[in-house]
UniProtKB/TrEMBL annotation, chain A:
This is Heme exporter protein B. PANTHER family: CYTOCHROME C BIOGENESIS B-RELATED (PTHR30070:SF1), HEME EXPORTER PROTEIN B (PTHR30070). One of its GO terms (molecular function) is heme transmembrane transporter activity. Its main location: membrane. Keywords: Cell inner membrane, Cell membrane, Cytochrome c-type biogenesis, Membrane, Transmembrane, Transmembrane helix, Transport.
From TrEMBL, chain B:
This is Heme ABC exporter ATP-binding protein CcmA. Its EC number is 3.6.3.41. The lineage of its organism: Bacteria, Pseudomonadati, Pseudomonadota, Alphaproteobacteria, Sphingomonadales. Keywords: ATP-binding, Cytochrome c-type biogenesis, Hydrolase, Membrane, Nucleotide-binding, Translocase, Transport. It comes from Sphingorhabdus wooponensis. One of its GO terms (molecular function) is ATP hydrolysis activity. The keyword Isomerase does not apply. Coiled coil: none annotated. It holds the Pfam family ABC_tran. Residues 11-203 form the ABC transporter domain. One of its GO terms (biological process) is cytochrome complex assembly.
Amino acid sequence: MKAFIALVAREVRLAWTGGGLWLPVIFYLAVATLFPFVTGPDKALLARTGGGILWIAALLATLLPIERLILPDRQSGVLDQLALRGWSDELVATAKIAGQIVAFALPLLLATIVGSALIGLPEAQLGTLLLGLALALPALSGLSVMIAALTAGLSGASALGGLLLVPITIPLLIFGAGTLAEDPGNAMQLLAATSLAITALSPFAAGAALRAGRV
Amino acid sequence: MSSRQASLPSLHIDNVAVMRGNRMVLRGLSVTARAGDVIWIRGANGCGKSTLLRLVAGLLTVTSGKIHSEGRMALADENLALDANMTVEDALRFWADMDGASTEAREAALAAMDLQELAHIPVHFLSTGQRKRASIARVLASGADIWLMDEPYNGLDSASCARLDEAIIGRAAAGGIVLVAAHQPPSINVAISLSLDSQGVAI
């Protein structure tokens, strides 16, 4: 367990020092800042569409750290060293997802409070938005690690990562947007179920990709 | 067999062949190493030295044959596995945590590779030879029974080569097994000299 925590802590530290923390948050807040410039100062329109925009921004922010999640560790031999010590690839992926949740998901939730203020989201919607994102971000973290493992070392990995990630996140986006409706009950439950399934499965998919990529 | 004998590290490579892509890299390779053995693996570029080490490490699977080992392994190859932004000490501490190694073992490894003065410098500021020494220190600190070293002398000055020799002799004397893949012969006595031809066959 100590070794697992050490690996998660390393992921968080690398995110802090490698821009994996700040870049997505800055991107997320930049979208929230720019959106009112496009729509104009129509408060009703911003209130109606702002939550959805933050959902899309969160999804796209997930893409930003993908290149640093797996490839550097593969190139530097860290993944080999972990395998040599008997770590299963699935456990390595789980640690990376856990690290990503701490380093990416939690700061993004905090940024949502700022972002919703920038966009002029009604206070009543903020709680629902935070809850929805809190449910979805573990899944987005899992997907980002999975996509990073699948595309590590491929030319054009960033673009490919985007192409792979966006379609997979459509259910999260649909249910996430559904939570912003007047009665978010069913959508919230479906979002939670979808997120749970993706979060639970992503370490296995990422682990298989890590194994396949070992040469 | 006594329990002490049962805990001794050993390595049995039995008629191993491996295919990489559509090329047979190693074929019909058999080696047995016991506690205290140093094995020098030599051969031309591409003959399968690194592949053999990765096979023993379990990072690759054999196409045919068997590899059986007893004992914990550590690998030093061309990939340093040290985080560039971390100090040497922190980078080694991470792996020491992974290995359950003591602080004393980590400090002894730093001293063995003459890295104490560089301990607080980020890895990316080190020279090639210094990075290599840090990578070797990771192996030393691990306390592993079987060391797998791929071209460990590359980039090292003569003093560092001597320190590495000393560490290898010490590991073997303590009952470990050390596999060294290198073009140049180590300046220490080796129990087995395994020479591979260009087809990956032991000669």
